[in-house]
Design goal:
Layout (H helix, E strand, L loop, with lengths): L8 H5 L1 E3 L6 E3 L3 E6 L5 E3 L10 E4 L2 H9 L2 H6 L9 H23 L2 E3 L1 H9 L3 E6 L5 H13 L5 E3 L4 H8 L6 E5 L2 H13 L15
Parallel strand pairs: 7-8
Antiparallel strand pairs: 1-2, 3-4, 3-5, 6-9, 7-9
Helix pairs in contact: 2-4, 4-7, 4-8, 5-6
Length: 211
């Protein structure tokens, strides 16, 4: 998992108690849940839904423990229902937020696409993230990962989407190599990626062994 990176100073200054561990933590490292109509527990990743917030550390094990031990009802001081697949729901919603964030970044000029453009951004230390299509060709990926290691500002790596999924989000075809340029937009986006890392790997395990 990557190190926590709060999206904003205000977010970093707000702290909540994790209902599983009892620890007080920054909101950036937590997922907010609320009890919806009928008492069903639902994720509130944007932290905007009405109702009392029930906060859980942003990782699969913590959410599954909260469901299994009935901790949402205890924290809410009321009978609420948490579905068995709640952690899967959080992961799916985080994936959606992350890929939507890429589309917004492209429209604002914070995301660049194409092997040569990404390579140039790496050489200049301007890339905060390299986003690779998980089904892209191995040769190009290896070259960019190698360039990332040599970059004066080594970026993080994300590879959880197929080329088609990236293309749909960005309004382009055959999207394989992209880079999120360093800046405020990247910092905000990183907050969602950080939470996602608690529910699934950010890239295939085998990629760690590539030279």
């Amino acid at each position: 998992m990557i190190a926590p990176a709060p999206a904003t100073h205000a977010e970093a200054s707000r702290q909540r108690r994790d209902i599983v561990s009892g620890e007080v933590m920054d909101e950036a490292g937590l997922v907010r849940f609320v009890a919806g109509p009928g008492g069903a527990v639902v994720p509130d990743l944007a932290r905007k839904l009405p109702g009392r917030g029930l906060w859980v550390a942003a990782d699969r094990a913590s959410v599954e423990t909260a469901v299994r031990k009935g901790l949402f009802s205890r924290a809410a001081k009321a009978r609420v229902t948490a579905p068995a697949d709640l952690a899967d729901q959080v992961e799916a919603q985080l994936l959606r937020r992350v890929v939507q964030g890429l589309g917004l970044a492209r429209r604002s000029g914070d995301l660049i696409c194409g092997f040569e453009k990404v390579l140039a951004a790496l050489a200049g230390g301007r890339a905060a993230w390299v986003i690779e299509a998980v089904d892209g060709a191995e040769d190009g990926r290896r070259k960019l990962i190698s360039a990332s290691r040599r970059s004066p500002n080594p970026p993080r790596l994300l590879a959880v989407f197929r080329s088609e999924e990236l293309g749909l989000a960005l309004g382009l075809e055959n999207v394989i190599h992209t880079a999120f340029l360093a800046g405020r937009a990247a910092d905000r986006w990183t907050s969602d990626v950080q939470r996602l890392s608690g529910f699934r790997p950010l890239f295939p395990e085998g990629w760690r062994e590539e030279p």
